[in-house]
Amino acid sequence: MFDKILIANRGEIASRVIRTARRLGIRTVAVHSEADTKAMHVQMADEAVCIGPAPVGESYLRGDVILDVAKRTGAQGIHPGYGFLSENAGFAAACAEAGVVFIGPPIEAIRVMGSKAESKRLMANADVPLVPGYHGQAQDFATLSAEAERIGFPVLVKASAGGGGKGMRVVREAGELADAVAGAQREAKAAFGDDSLLLEKYLARPRHVEIQVFCDTHGNGVYLFERDCSVQRRHQKVIEEAPAPNLPDDLRRRMGEAAVAAAKAVNYVGAGTVEFLYEDGGFYFIEMNTRLQVEHPVTEKITGLDLVEWQLRVASGAELPLRQEQLTRRGHAFEARLYAEDPQRDFLPAIGTLVRLRPPAENDHVRVDTGVREGDAVTMFYDPMIAKLIVWDEDRESALRRLRVALAAYEVVGVTTNIGFLGAIAGHPAFRAVEIDTGFIERHRADLLPPPAPVADEALAAAALSVLLRRRKETRESLRARPDPHSPWLFANGWRLNEESHYDLSLMDGETARAVTLHFRPDGYEVVVDGGAPIRATGVSFEDGVLTAGIGGARVRATVVQQGLDLTVLIGGAVSRLKLDDPSARAAEQEGGSGRLTAPMPGTVVRVLVEAGQVVEAGAPLMLLEAMKMEHTIKAPAAGTVSAVNFAAGDQVSEGVDLLVLDIAEA
């Protein structure tokens, strides 16, 4: 076994590897960028070395620098985690040349399986079922067009290298193919440095089922059952579960055996995942991920095994700890990926400081894998994952109930997150009924992403009470410092001469002003929202950002976080955002908004589709912006004339800058 390893990664996966290494008595070396100097994985490791500036190309992708650190610190092996260098055959080869163990598969296995086209040719020879498609080397549009016609529309255009949904387009008719190919090639080139594509028949309603495999250097190979990863958006997984529900046991066995055959076809060693599409009793090979998957914890929960420990043991030359007949599974597990992103804005990544970050309590049923803490920043430089929430119970329904409860208890303030969206999936009747496939989110989009509703009276009452109690506390603390500690002003109870004691507040709910009046009563308050019927609030307390009160006869626990004029209220998993009414600030916002199209986040301008003076219709695409290796289209909010284009292709832009100015036509 190793004495010391280096983790060539960051965030959640680096922290997760360090936890297992520490349990096994293995010392760890963390590498980090200048932006990650105080990151969790840096604090957890026994040693940490800075390897460059924030951009990944200057730090976490610098294999030469990382190898130098490994040699200088005496690390015997390098664990690459997932992403970054984890599936880089060149880096694995450099490790071998330097005499440092790459804790992953052999170089040739990475190379072959890293090419979707080559891997599918190899799988065909190994009798692993494939989706009908084109995996050839000819990449001219004429060839791709002819092959698409042969396969039959709809077809899926995919980047041959890489994964994560990048460089992938669904094409439903021949006229869409040219734009889809061009867009996929640009995205693939930017993400993987390789713009080669392949084509596949697009299955109507497949499930995404993957098999966890493990092989050692002694010729042993096993599968550790399967995971269902069908719930996806933009071809990226959102919620995973194990085992895959409603699969016949014979099918599970055949898929597992096919996955092991796929691994042995490339002399695989270590942890890997063979991904299949499953539809109408048939299953088809998609690709093999030659690394530990993001969703590996659900396999760990149903098997009781530590897959990182298996990786370390196999990489040090040991045999697999168990044979196929010794492997068992128990219960059901879910993993939900918590991201800093805005589902209402087509899942645009969000950046900001985690002002409040309180996960649910961990126990035998709930596990939280994360690489950030309260006060950390989610930046533009890295994947915006906040955490992976993993739950387990004896059966699917019980585990799903635990997932809903844990999501409702997760508190994140400071960045927009997908927690509410995850909760909507977990609570959807079709998800509970296992009516799932890769089109689940799009099919149920109206249910999962309803238009924003007005903030509920309960949340408005909680916000107003928190403002009052916070101000009362601040006033008392200020007055206590004065000479007369017995001043009647210390009461701050809303007393008014010749008037009933009350407190008036105006809160902005989006563009709507909401009036809240708190009437002081001996046992608490009466809250009047927008002139409606009074709501009783009794037993009110406010500590550490948590307000507890009996509101309208029900006991309510609300987390209320105030940042300047902004208020975030969390009640039972629902998030409400309000702003203390400030007329001057509101006027300034309204003055600058009309016709100015701003960058939703930092990124690079890929293409400018219009020019100054051009007349456009509502919804017309104006500019392509690449951010976090994803393309986002800036569209005209209304018909009008482009009066200014402030950036050109290739320009770097910051969040909030004016990209274009549109003179909106009068209605």
UniProtKB/TrEMBL annotation:
Keyword annotations for this protein, in alphabetical order, are: ATP-binding, Biotin, Ligase, Nucleotide-binding, Transit peptide
Q: Which Pfam families does the UniProt entry name for this protein?
A: Biotin_carb_C, Biotin_carb_N, Biotin_lipoyl, BT_MCC_alpha, CPSase_L_D2
What region holds the Biotin carboxylation domain?
A: 1-446
Where do the ATP-grasp domain residues begin and end?
120-316
Domain Lipoyl-binding, first and last residues per copy = 588-663
Q: Annotated Gene Ontology MF terms?
A: ATP binding; ligase activity; metal ion binding
Q: Which PROSITE patterns match?
A: ATP_GRASP, BC, BIOTINYL_LIPOYL, CPSASE_1, CPSASE_2
Q: Would the keyword Ligase turn up in this protein's UniProt record?
A: yes
| UniProt xrefs under SMART domains | Biotin_carb_C
Question: What cofactor(s) does the depicted protein rely on?
Answer: biotin
Tell me which NCBIfam families the record gives.
PRK08591.1
Q: What is this protein called?
A: Acetyl/propionyl/methylcrotonyl-CoA carboxylase subunit alpha
Lineage summary: Bacteria, Pseudomonadati, Pseudomonadota, Alphaproteobacteria, Rhodospirillales
